[in-house]
Automatic annotation (TrEMBL):
Record's keyword terms, sorted: Amino-acid transport, Signal, Transport
Source organism of the structure: Variovorax ginsengisoli
SUPFAM superfamilies hit by this protein: Periplasmic binding protein-like I (SSF53822)
Signal sequence segment: 1-23
Protein name according to UniProt: Branched-chain amino acid ABC transporter substrate-binding protein
Domain Leucine-binding protein: 26-365
UniProt cross-references to Gene3D superfamilies, sorted A to Z: 3.40.50.2300
Length: 417
């Protein structure tokens, strides 16, 4: 005898229970960064670093003793509108955290604002934003958010490291400011003028230009202005295609300039462009650089990463970002977003670049910064070539996160316990 009217509800309930259990075993993270357009190579680099970390976390058992992390991928197209569309799609697919940073500070700021609104209107369904590369100090300053965490040193911290280096470089006498026309480009120019001017009051700033981001195909006219100004050095926040095209144009024109940048050397193609230009120097600052001495943990990670992905490892902070999230989930003992955010605050983490700490007052990660210059291999300061060239990286100075830490205008508004 069959009892379909009784068995069907029981079976359906069992299936629903099984589905709920499976859903609880996955913690979804949405990657929102450029995967098409002029900065697609940057987005792919960041994606691969993020994927590697998540796959390694899962291989080690996931979080909370068995919950696996799942990465959802979305193309920001370097657009605030596209990023917010991606955010809604991520929410619809059950994301609990957003990993972003390569779309630029203006786009990330818009994303954070959208998450703030969503979290306020949807208690119990909140999201986190983990930002690995958009370094506008406003994001951990006046525009700080309880739901946003910055895992790279911000613009002010990086420029302080560069200013300290320029202070010891007397041959730098005249500086031109050439930057992309968006929030971060303007910030890089502003902090350059302020902090380098403070470190070296004798330096002359002989010109300043902002150009459209990702749209300039030939930088020759900009370089002609730089040459006419008499500058020997350029403070530029350019990255990706805008950096490599600038270097190419300078090489073609025979201009021997010293560039000061925040992260250019960690982007594919920059070392190759320098080697082809054969003129100038590019000094940049990051938590690590390839070939850096006395960094066995990063060396081991880079070797493993290369073996698995077939690509060069370039950015410990990006690979570290999902690991910080995983550590916070385990510390909280929960995937509840508010509890995870509280666990991230003041979280100390033994990273491959040394101990780091997420400052609670503004959600700024304090991590070391290495000032280094792309230079020809000499067997001493530069022992290893990069990107198939005879150019690599020379360490100029290393600063701890605490040495570069600065005050903040953040007035953090936290949810009620």
């Amino acid at each position: 005898m069959k009892f379909p009217s009784l068995l069907a509800p029981v079976a359906a309930a069992a299936l629903l229970a099984t589905g709920a259990t499976q859903a609880q075993q996955t913690y979804k993270i949405a990657y929102i960064d450029p995967l098409s357009g002029p900065f697609a190579n940057v987005g792919e680099l960041m994606l691969t670093h993020t994927q590697y970390a998540i796959e390694d976390i899962n291989a080690r058992g996931g979080v909370l003793g068995g919950t696996k992390m799942q990465l959802l991928q979305f193309d920001s197209k370097l657009s605030a509108q596209e990023s917010q569309s991606a955010l809604q799609a991520a929410i619809d697919q059950g994301a609990r955290a957003i990993v972003t940073g390569g779309s630029g500070s203006s786009v990330v700021s818009a994303l954070v604002q959208a998450v703030n609104r969503w979290n306020q209107r949807n208690p119990g369904r909140e999201l986190l934003v983990l930002n690995h590369s958009s370094i506008d100090p406003e994001l951990t300053g006046k525009a700080c958010s309880f739901w946003h965490f910055q895992t790279d040193a911000n613009t002010a911290m990086k420029m302080k490291a560069i200013a300290n280096t320029i202070k010891k470089t007397p041959e730098v006498k005249k500086i031109y400011l050439l930057n992309q026309d968006y929030a971060h480009g303007k910030q890089w120019a502003s902090y350059g003028r302020q902090l380098v001017g403070l470190a070296r009051p004798d330096i002359q700033f002989v010109g300043e230009t902002l150009h459209p981001i990702g749209k300039v195909k030939d930088f020759a006219p900009y370089l002609a202005n730089i040459k006419q100004s008499g500058a020997d050095s350029v403070i530029t926040g350019n990255w990706g295609q805008d950096m490599t095209l600038l270097l190419k144009a300078a090489g073609d024109a025979g201009y021997d300039l010293h560039y000061y940048n925040h992260s250019a050397g960690s982007v594919p193609g920059t070392v190759l462009a320098m080697s082809q230009a054969r003129l100038g120097q590019l000094t940049w600052v990051a938590e690590w650089h390839p070939g850096q001495a006395d960094s066995p943990k990063v060396d081991a990670l880079a070797k493993s990463y290369k073996a698995k992905t077939g690509k060069d490892f370039l950015a410990p902070r990006i690979e570290m970002t999902p690991r910080l999230l995983a550590a916070a989930i385990n510390k909280a003992g929960s995937t509840d977003t508010t509890q995870v955010a509280r666990a991230l605050e003041d979280l100390g983490f033994d990273s491959v670049v040394g101990p780091v700490r997420m400052r609670a007052e503004d959600h700024q990660l304090l991590l070391p910064q290495v000032v280094n210059t792309i230079a020809p291999v000499d067997g001493k300061a530069v022992k290893v070539g990069w990107e198939g060239t005879n150019y690599g990286f020379r360490t100029d100075a290393i600063y701890s996160g605490n040495e570069l830490a600065q005050g903040t205008d953040c007035k953090m508004v936290r949810p009620q316990p």
